[in-house]
Amino acid sequence: MLSIEWILLYLVLGAFVGFMAGLLGVGGGGILVPILVTIFSYQGVGQESVVHLALGTSLACMIISSSSSIYAHASRGTVVWKVVYEMVLGIVLGAFLVTHLAADVNPTYIAIFFALFMALVAGQMFLNWKPKPSTNPTKLRSLFVAGTLIGMVSSLAAVGGGFLAVTYLSYKNIDIKKAIGTSAAIGFPIAIAGTVGYMISGWSKTLNEPYTFGFIYLPAFLVISIASFIAAPLGASCSNNLPEARLKKIFAIVSLILSVKMLFSVI
């Protein structure tokens, strides 16, 4: 049941995720999805598809956060638009297709995948691992394939693709600042395609659930999006005054703990 308490909780969650996104330049899926699974479970929303609802709602929230992120990076000239254009078709294809496949996958398997993926992200943050640059030239076909894989994984884990995209673009000898900016731009089509896919694939499965639009829970989407949009600039303004490396480790630990909690709540 939807009440003012849940609305306030969504407001706090959105503000926290938006602040962290602005502060660290990372997506909030690692925190947002596990918490939404818990909140939806307590609310009694979509008990049979609570993980799918959390994934779809998180991706919908990303549309707002990624659009503001694109503007910030584009204004600094750190988006390599040629790479975005050559990857976007694969990204949209991968993200859209995987949402239809995920609709019929056991939520436990998705939770396991999410937990393992977040463990990988946490490990990369801790070790600050970066691939050795490739000596091979970047080709359109390789960008399309990479975009498809990034779109698929990102939609299944409800993340913007930042971890995968930055790693891949760094491997392709793109400057780290431009890799981060380009990754932010890549997150937008992932969010759009993933959201549309989860809306369509969940349409018949949530007809009896109030306030849902496919696998999107509208109250959570609206409140979290507004709060994160307002809080993101505050996080960005604080980024120069706080120890980013330490905060990323804390963010990784929290995301991993919440992911494991989600896994055990679904099993």
From TrEMBL:
What highest taxon heads this organism's lineage?
Bacteria
Question: Which cellular component, as a GO term, is one annotated location?
Answer: plasma membrane
Q: Where in the cell is it found?
A: Cell membrane; Membrane
Q: Which residues cross the membrane?
A: 7-37, 49-71, 83-103, 109-129, 141-168, 180-200, 212-235, 247-264
- Indicate how the chain sits in the lipid bilayer: Multi-pass membrane protein
| The keyword Transmembrane is assigned to this record | yes
Coiled coil in keyword set: no
Keywords, alphabetical: Cell membrane, Membrane, Transmembrane, Transmembrane helix
Q: Name one Pfam family in it.
A: TauE
The record's listing under InterPro entries reads:
TM_pro_TauE-like
**Family note:** Belongs to the 4-toluene sulfonate uptake permease (TSUP) (TC 2.A.102) family.
Please identify the protein, giving its name as recorded. Answer: Probable membrane transporter protein
Lineage of producing organism: Bacteria, Pseudomonadati, Pseudomonadota, Betaproteobacteria, Nitrosomonadales
